[in-house]
């Protein structure tokens, strides 16, 4: 459908008569130059000067079609010459230096690619270059970015490459053209369009637009094929020598030699064919497909989307991807599926660097009309308009295609092409498509950009960036145009991903309808639209040029807004439609960098901000949250401050509160001044006082405002409810804190329960930390919590760190920045105790969470601080707190396995055991008559039950060192501490925990041999690991004389260790543990182990027999 709205879109009209009959070939030149073909000449007219004749240049024959190319500034003509026997001959010729003064200068002629220009020819002489053709041409087209020429001859389209060469003799540069690619279509081509590697061909009933790509898989296969051919040649030469040797050997034949190789070749070929099927473009693995909903217009397509599969039964579904019309195929698909294209890379090209068989045609759009059921034919006016990235690399996820391979159709050193807009029309309906290009051609996105229904049959169409001009049977029609999606989002901020309507399915605007009669051609220049009409009255057929001057983007925008405002009350939908169309006009002009006509005109970006503000005003007046979100996004583009938005809207506006709240909560909103902040708060006081607390807590742009006014609003809200809302209480505390009344903050916070305070603080976690000069520290609010609400403080930060919002290292740094601590010696202060208690609380919940402890870089500094604090506690830093808190000892004792279970053998080391394993201590008799081992065990149990304050700190440190949390540096620091303080409590056990495993064994063997058995039970998981302990124990015992009292001690320990292994180790493992030279000495233990193994075997056999008997009985 079309919305008819008259918008003044032409500034003035000039009329000029043609001295010669024109209209046989018309095209635009540079700027506003119009080239009109006449009788063996081309007239040059300047439309800016009213279409007056500025000059002309001769042509060889009668011009049938004219095309101007910006790259090279040359004119291509399709010329006709009558033949002797009827019909005509057709030639394609290129004219160089046509815009120079060629009066009384001969025209130099040559054949492209075959004849070089004369070495004496000057650069200002008119030069004609004839393009060699094999068959008569029907249509010509030029690529404006590369200068390549496409010539349609029947079903064949030949692309000639634009080249700049250097003359061998004069060293002068000249322009030449070489045959590059020949394309054979499946229909007779009537029109052709070319834009770099995109080519479109049209017949009366069929249109095919495709991309010429380089298939990397075919390129790899081609190189492999070359290698295989070279290997095949070598294998043939080898087979010949084998055949000769076989013929000389009796009883052997050539067939017997080659049969095995033939079977091997068949197997390899079969496997290669399966691989080639999986790697082909037609192969689809349904197991890897993902459902992708229809992409809305203006939203960037994700770069990791897979190709689309269009299932016929789902054509009408709303989430089926780009839905095609009958007879239409929307790609990308292989051209073999719809209309085959045969590509041939011509060998005459000097730029050929790639083999011909690596090129393929990927269909983007294919349409075929049915002559019987679809009378709306023929197709015509095919336009390909490339879209380039105006600011490459600025936006992430851009769809630019890196040219990794040297494509002969792509220019070098030009802006990256991100897509193209394609227009195609029938006599009554025009179709606009937008293609977004990606590195993989089969991931290209093709969406419909608009449908245009004309009021009368169309003859010719010209496209501006924002408008479409159609020359119909009744006159000139002008429609609004939907730009490419990349252009739509190009002006948006990087962090703003919004959908910019209107969608292509919405109606377009017919903004102009001007009657013209007998118009033959329609041509668009930079700032004019030229129509050439024929005057059929009288005997002489004359022509008239109508030059319509186009308005600037700013003027067109203002006119559209003016017309839209006139419909604002009567038809709000029309007002919105024109606002959106005007917004797209500015967006397109900014992307294309269209020059302004007058220097005094407003800046386009300022107008775009005004347009965004108007759209924001409209959507704010709507009733749904989705429309309010759109209003917020448009206001963000407009760069209006929240107070400026309030001035534009009424207090009764439905979306006022939602829009202002969203703007205030956006992180990119700049900090408001005092006047701006007070204006915003006054609006909230009148419209939504209950939102003030939320704004104060969440907005980072409200810094300087009237504290008394906010206090009054919040207190009034608190008086309305029996139980205070946590957000109101927290906001009230924050305002008191800003006023400098920190003593009132704790009183306000006391009105909430602990769990309510924790929840509301976690919801507003941005209030907990502040960053100044690159350093993060605790906020003043958190400092009040740390001093008056320690439980809440701990619970909040433990939750934040556990969720991953904050790292433990960052918390320690922020804490130390506010509360400097002393982490060594008896001078540790209260702040050190706070930090230690917090870290213990955290690890009490997360020490066994691998997701937390697996990221050492997030907690390593906290562990270092903990180790230092625990070492300080061993020298009396924190003292005994049991007098202040009767439950203190029980709480510390509960943390003895906080980080990891302590090894049991630590209970046999000082200070938990007085047995230092000295021989004289073992020989002395105790006074009560008990054995030393029993006495040590009883004392250890009593020590465990009555741990002193220092022992409690030691136990927790032992648990920490028993875990994997401390780093190597932390353990090295502990070793340095025990070396410097050998009399410190538990120094021996700390040394053991920080040594390497081999060093641990040596230290315990020398100092605490009575703990060896328990050490082995704690540290070894399999019996074979005991081998080192047994070997070192036997060696050390053997080194002692039998008269030494320690000899008997180590003998008893060895017997205890071997007695443990006799029971726990299999016999073969036990024999591996015992050194071979000691078998005779330890024969008794070997017999015991053998007997135990036999007993285990017998028990297993009996159980197996019993199970078998039971199984037989149950059958």
TrEMBL record:
Positions of the BLOC-2 complex member HPS3 N-terminal domain: 4-241
Domain (BLOC-2 complex member HPS3 C-terminal) ranges: 556-810
GO cellular component, one term: cytoplasm
UniProt region (Disordered), positions on chain: 221-260, 391-411, 916-942
Comp. bias (Basic and acidic residues): 222-234
Record-linked Pfam families: HPS3_C, HPS3_N
Sequence ranges of Basic residues compositional bias: 235-245
Coiled-coil parts of chain: none
Biased composition (Low complexity): 246-260
Record-linked InterPro entries: HPS3, HPS3_C, HPS3_N
PANTHER family in alphabetical order: BLOC-2 COMPLEX MEMBER HPS3 (PTHR28633:SF1), HERMANSKY-PUDLAK SYNDROME 3 PROTEIN (PTHR28633)
Name of the molecule in the record: Hermansky-Pudlak syndrome 3 protein
């Amino acid at each position: 459908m079309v919305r008819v709205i008259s918008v003044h879109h032409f500034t003035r009209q000039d009329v000029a008569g043609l001295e010669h009959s024109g209209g046989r070939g018309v095209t635009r030149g540079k700027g506003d130059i119009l080239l009109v073909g006449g009788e063996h000449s081309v007239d040059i007219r300047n439309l800016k000067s009213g279409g007056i004749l500025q000059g002309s240049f001769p042509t060889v024959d009668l011009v049938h079609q004219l095309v101007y190319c910006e790259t090279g500034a040359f004119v291509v003509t399709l010329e006709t010459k009558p033949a002797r026997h009827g019909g005509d001959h057709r030639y394609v010729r290129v004219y160089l230096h046509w815009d120079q003064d060629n009066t009384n200068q001969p025209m130099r002629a040559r054949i492209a690619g075959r004849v070089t220009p004369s070495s004496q020819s000057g650069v200002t002489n008119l030069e004609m270059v004839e393009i060699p053709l094999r068959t008569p041409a029907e249509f010509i087209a030029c690529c404006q970015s590369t200068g390549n020429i496409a010539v349609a001859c029947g079903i064949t389209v030949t692309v000639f490459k634009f080249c700049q060469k250097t003359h061998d003799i004069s060293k002068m540069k000249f322009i030449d053209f070489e045959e590059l690619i020949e394309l054979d279509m499946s229909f007779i081509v009537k029109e052709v369009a070319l834009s770099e590697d995109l080519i479109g061909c049209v017949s009366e009933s069929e249109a095919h637009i495709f991309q010429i790509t380089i298939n990397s898989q075919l390129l790899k296969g081609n190189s492999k094929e070359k290698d295989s051919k070279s290997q095949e040649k070598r294998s043939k030469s080898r087979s010949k020598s084998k055949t000769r040797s076989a013929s000389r050997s009796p009883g052997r034949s050539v067939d017997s030699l080659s049969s095995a190789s033939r079977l091997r070749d068949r197997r390899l070929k079969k496997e290669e064919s399966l691989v080639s099927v999986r790697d082909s473009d037609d192969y689809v693995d349904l197991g890897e497909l993902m459902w992708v909903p229809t992409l809305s217009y203006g939203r960037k397509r994700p770069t990791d989307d897979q190709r689309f599969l269009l299932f016929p039964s789902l054509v009408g579904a709303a989430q089926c991807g780009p839905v095609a019309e009958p007879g239409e195929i929307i790609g990308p698909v292989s051209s073999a599926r719809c209309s085959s294209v045969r590509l041939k890379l011509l060998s005459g090209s000097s730029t050929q660097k790639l083999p011909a068989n690596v090129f393929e045609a990927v269909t983007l759009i294919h349409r075929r009309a049915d002559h019987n059921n679809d009378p709306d034919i023929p197709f015509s006016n095919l336009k390909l308009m490339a879209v380039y990235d105006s600011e490459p690399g600025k936006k992430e996820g851009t769809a630019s295609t890196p040219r990794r391979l040297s494509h002969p159709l792509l220019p070098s050193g030009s802006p990256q092409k991100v897509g193209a807009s394609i227009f195609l029309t029938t006599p009554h309906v025009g179709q606009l498509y937008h293609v977004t290009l990606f590195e993989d051609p089969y991931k290209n996105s093709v969406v419909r950009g608009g449908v245009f229904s004309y009021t009368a049959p169309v003859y010719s169409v010209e496209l501006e960036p924002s408008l479409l001009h159609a020359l119909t049977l009744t006159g000139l029609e002008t429609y609004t145009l939907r730009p490419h999606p990349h252009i739509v989002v190009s002006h948006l901020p990087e962090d703003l991903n919004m959908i910019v309507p209107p969608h292509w399915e919405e109606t377009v605007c017919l903004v102009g309808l001007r009657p013209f009669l007998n118009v033959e051609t329609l041509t668009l220049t930079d700032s004019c639209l030229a129509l050439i009409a024929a005057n059929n009255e009288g005997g002489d057929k004359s022509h008239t040029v109508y030059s319509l001057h186009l308005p600037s983007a700013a003027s067109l925008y203002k006119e559209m807004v003016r017309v839209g405002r006139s419909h604002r009350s009567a038809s709000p939908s029309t007002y919105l439609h024109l606002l959106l169309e005007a917004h797209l006009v500015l967006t397109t002009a900014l992307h294309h960098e269209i020059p302004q006509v007058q220097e005094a005109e407003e800046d386009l970006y300022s107008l775009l901000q005004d347009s965004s503000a108007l759209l924001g005003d409209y959507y704010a007046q709507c009733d749904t949250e989705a429309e309010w979100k759109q209003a917020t996004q448009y206001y963000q583009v407009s760069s209006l401050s929240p107070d400026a938005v309030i001035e534009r809207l009424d207090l009764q506006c439905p979306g006022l509160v939602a829009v202002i709240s969203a703007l205030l909560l956006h992180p990119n909103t700049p900090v408001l001044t005092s006047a701006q902040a007070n204006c915003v708060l006054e609006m909230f006081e009148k419209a939504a006082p209950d939102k003030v607390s939320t704004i104060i807590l969440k907005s980072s742009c409200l810094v300087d405002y009237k504290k008394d006014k906010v206090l009054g609003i919040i207190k009034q809200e608190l008086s309305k409810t029996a139980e205070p809302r946590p957000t109101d209480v927290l906001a009230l505390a924050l305002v008191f804190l800003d006023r400098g009344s920190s003593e009132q903050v704790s009183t306000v916070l006391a009105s909430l329960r602990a769990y309510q305070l924790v929840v509301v603080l976690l919801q507003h976690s941005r209030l907990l930390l502040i960053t100044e000069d690159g350093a993060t520290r605790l906020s003043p609010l958190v400092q009040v919590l740390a001093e008056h609400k320690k439980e809440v403080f701990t619970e909040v930060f433990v939750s934040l760190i556990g969720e991953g919002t904050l790292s433990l290292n960052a918390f320690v740094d922020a804490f130390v920045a506010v509360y400097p601590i002393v982490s060594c010696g008896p001078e540790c202060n209260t702040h050190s105790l706070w930090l230690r208690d917090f870290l213990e609380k955290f690890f009490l919940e997360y020490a066994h969470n691998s997701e937390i402890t697996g990221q050492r870089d997030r907690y390593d500094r906290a562990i270092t601080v903990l180790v230092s604090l625990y070492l300080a506690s061993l020298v009396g830093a924190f003292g005994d707190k049991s007098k202040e808190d009767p439950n203190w000892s029980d709480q510390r004792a509960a943390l003895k396995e906080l980080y990891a279970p302590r090894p049991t053998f630590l209970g046999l080391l000082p200070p938990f055991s007085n047995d230092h394993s000295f021989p004289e201590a073992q020989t002395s008799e105790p006074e009560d008559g008990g054995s030393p081992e029993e006495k040590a065990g009883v004392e250890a149990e009593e020590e465990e039950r009555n741990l002193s304050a220092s022992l409690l700190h030691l136990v927790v440190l032992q648990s920490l060192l028993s875990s994997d949390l401390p780093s190597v540096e932390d353990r090295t620091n502990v070793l340095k501490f025990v070396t410097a303080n050998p009399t410190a409590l538990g120094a021996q056990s700390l040394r053991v925990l920080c040594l390497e495993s081999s060093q641990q064994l040596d230290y315990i063997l020398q100092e605490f041999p009575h703990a060896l058995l328990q050490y082995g039970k704690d540290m070894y998981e399999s019996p074979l690991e005991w081998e080192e302990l047994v070997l070192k124990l036997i060696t050390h015992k053997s080194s002692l004389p039998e008269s030494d009292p320690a000899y008997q001690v180590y003998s008893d320990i060895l017997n205890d260790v071997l007695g443990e292994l006799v029971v726990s180790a299999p016999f073969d493992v036990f024999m591996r543990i015992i050194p071979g030279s000691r078998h005779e000495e330890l024969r008794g233990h070997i017999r015991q182990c053998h007997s135990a193994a036999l007993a285990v075997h017998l028990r297993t056999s009996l159980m197996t027999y019993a199970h078998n008997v039971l199984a037989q009985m149950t059958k």
